[in-house]
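LOG
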Amino acid sequence: MNTQLSHVDNPSSNRAGGAMIDTEGQRAIQEVQAAMVISKRFPRDTKAALDRILNSCARVSLAEQALYTYSRGGTDISGPSIRLAEAVAQQWGNLQFGIRELEQRNGESTVEAFAWDLETNTRQVKVFQVPHTRYTKSKGNTALTDPRDIYELVANQGARRLRACILGVIPGDVIDEAVKQCDATLNASADIGPDAQKRMVDAFAAYRVTKDQIEKRIQRRMDAITPAQVIQLRKIHLSMRDGMSSAEDWFDAAKIAVPAPINPVDEIAANPGGAKKPEQKHVEPKKSEITNESSDTLI
């Protein structure tokens, strides 16, 4: 009896699940059709869209996050960041873009990034795998189990592909004009005052980069930094924050001085009589005598 009932119940549940899938599919099709109809009814004004993009790039808050730089093969490569790509897509209009996690199994996620120009029907889609692991030079590959860590990893990897999709849909000359405007905005607003220098040092300190390493990178003291170098450091910081590069790609690691080993011949020459040196008893310092070393000497 139980077997017969189970055979009777399963088809109905399957039909219910299939009906829900069909309903969702029809709804998605209707949304796409409506978006395409609206884009044809209200076409894009290219000149007005470009003016909106340039006005957005004139904002300092956007320009500071608009460009990134990373080192590859000894050459610095610079380009528009995901933030600039999103801002351009929003002002370009009649454009759908985003990231979808298609499935998650066996310790990895299958993700889709897409950008679709509804007017020209130009579409860029990238489907890729994101293993739930994080690589560091000190620990190697570490498996991720926290859902938040997995979400942030997928979002970070998806943002890079989304940027490529958006840049593949929007004309290249529009992106070039946006980059030029961002550079002009940064050059006009670069702050080299003491407060700005302190904020920059504090921002890099989060990645264990010291002031000395920054000064070695720019080949001068922080109080003599130029506006162009401020802009370059901002791009480097943005690249590190977005995971495009690491601190080791830009700054020389501080080297800890190691005392040279004692040569036995030199030791005999310094003590020809062979007399033993008096032993020095180790005395524990008092708590009041213990001092903390500065962070510059520890790094």
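LOG (cont.) second protein
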Amino acid sequence: MKKYPPFVAQKKVTNQKAEMLVAGIVSPSDPSIGINYTKTHSKIDMQVVSTSDGLSRYGSVDQTSKVATATITIASNDFHTGLTYANFSEIYLGDTLLKANTHFDVGASAGAETTGQIAINLATAINRLKGFSATPNVNDVEITCTNGIGVLIHFTKSERQNATVFTLSPSNGKMSNGLAFGSISKS
């Protein structure tokens, strides 16, 4: 299985959590008439999320939902019609590329494998990836990724034949759910 460098959108959460105390004033003051300001201190919790190109973003990670999910539907078993130079369809999952007829079998000719069998073959290939698991369900492959921020896990396809063979859900290029990355939390 060919492993590509991480996509820029692929981000990793560091284990470093930071707390910062912030001083502030919560009421106006006018010492000339005897009104003095009220001081406060707040604590801010944050984590650093860094991209593969070295950029960092501060925020917080919600640990309550740890499983990112996605589904690939095998919409057709014709991976061959209109194909040139054996340039088969590809699935990008995280920083890994899965190529049809290289990493999972789609048959030697159009219609040689059923869509259900192709789903089984694709699930088997995904199960070999670290951090991912997949379950075939008729023509669908249900994918989970533990301890990943779903909206930051690259999930796309590249098709080069006449028929649309993969339908992705979600279709926005990222997995859904998983650890939630939000703004810096204040307490």
